[in-house]
TrEMBL record:
<feature type="domain" description="EAL">
    <location>
        <begin position="23"/>
        <end position="275"/>
    </location>
</feature>
<protein>
    <submittedName>
        <fullName>PAS domain S-box-containing protein/diguanylate cyclase (GGDEF) domain-containing protein</fullName>
    </submittedName>
</protein>
């Protein structure tokens, strides 16, 4: 029995070692993603209840020459742990600003949303970096939405509020992403100058019946209405889910039912090319 136990320990250590090695190799590989031109921005349309495109969210993709397509669900947490997430976020921001600059005339009221990691938002130079990006591309902030998660509360509220005010001053809107999955008090939320709540896909998937819907989805919509915030419903895949959401005619819909994420070039071609409009 003792030997077996020892065997277990050895096996455990080897497995741990292998996983640590894989993580290590993945993080080494990730360092080369920007210089090696392995990253691609995808855009997923956001629609009004009738299907009209009102915006799009930028989603990062990593195409590694050997590993193939690595999911952001795998490499974003790694970059967060390694402290390199700001570089990735900033690379996406740069691409989105360049798209905005190039297609300003055809964007109309369309806004492009970019995900911002909490540790990136927490940086002292967060706002100034965005300002210099807008200056560099000679664009205003009115085509940009920043998606922050409830974890932005890792910072002191006065700092958070002053950063959000500065963004609002630039015309940039702020959305609270994955809303309902994190930990935020209503009183806190009420103090934040934000424009949008994004309802997490886990709640949308739980909408089974077009009549009764889902209590959390309706609760968040009511709350958003009370706070005068727009809602975006993430991960809408079925006609039943859409049908229930017609109870909230002003909500924005994002999900495979209307459209999947597309490489940014293709999204621009489909949505901003005057020949196709
Ligand atoms: P998220 O911000 O909640 O983004 C929505 C995710 O849901 C995306 O996954 C999108 O492809 C997926 N999705 C959209 N509609 C549907 C649907 O109808 N059904 C299903 N099953 N999925 C749908 P993706 O692209 O794999 O991204 C995963 C997460 O990685 C994102 O979740 C976000 O937290 C993070 N992420 C992606 N790009 C960036 C980035 O540039 N910066 C940061 N900090 N995080 C990013
Ligand atoms: Ca998001
Ligand atoms: Ca998210
Ligand atoms: Ca989500």
């Amino acid at each position: 029995a003792k030997q077996e136990k020892m065997g277990d320990i050895v096996f455990f250590n080897e497995r741990m070692g292998r996983e640590a090695m894989e993580q290590f190799q993945l993080s080494q590989a990730l360092r080369n993603a920007i210089p090696g031109h392995e990253l691609i921005v995808y855009l997923q349309s956001q629609h009004d209840i009738h299907g009209q495109v009102v915006g799009a969210e930028a989603l990062l993709r990593w195409q590694h020459p050997k590993l193939g397509m690595v999911s952001p669900a795998d490499f974003i947490p790694l970059a967060e742990a390694e402290g390199t997430i700001s570089e990735l976020d900033r690379w996406v921001l740069e691409q989105v600003m360049a798209i905005t600059r190039a297609h300003q005339k055809n964007l109309g009221l369309i806004r492009l949303a970019v995900n911002i990691s909490p540790s990136h938002f927490a940086r002292d130079d967060f706002v100034s970096h965005i300002m210099s990006g807008l200056r560099k591309h000679r664009i205003g902030g009115h085509h940009l939405v920043l998606e922050l998660t409830e974890n932005l509360m890792i910072q002191e509220i006065t700092t958070v509020v002053s950063k959000l005010r500065a963004l609002a001053g630039l015309g940039i809107e702020v959305s609270i992403d994955d809303f309902g999955t994190g930990y935020s008090s209503l009183s806190y939320l009420q103090q934040l100058p934000i424009q949008e709540l994004k309802i997490d896909r886990s709640f949308t998937q739980a909408i089974s019946c077009p009549q009764t819907g889902h209590p959390i989805v309706s609760m968040i919509h009511n709350m958003a209405a009370a706070l005068d915030l727009r809602t975006v419903v993430e991960g809408v895949e079925t006609a039943e889910q859409l049908s229930y959401l017609k109870h909230y005619p002003n909500t924005v819909i994002q999900g495979y039912y209307f459209s999947k994420p597309l490489p940014a070039d293709q999204w621009v071609e489909d949505n901003l090319n005057p020949q196709n409009l």
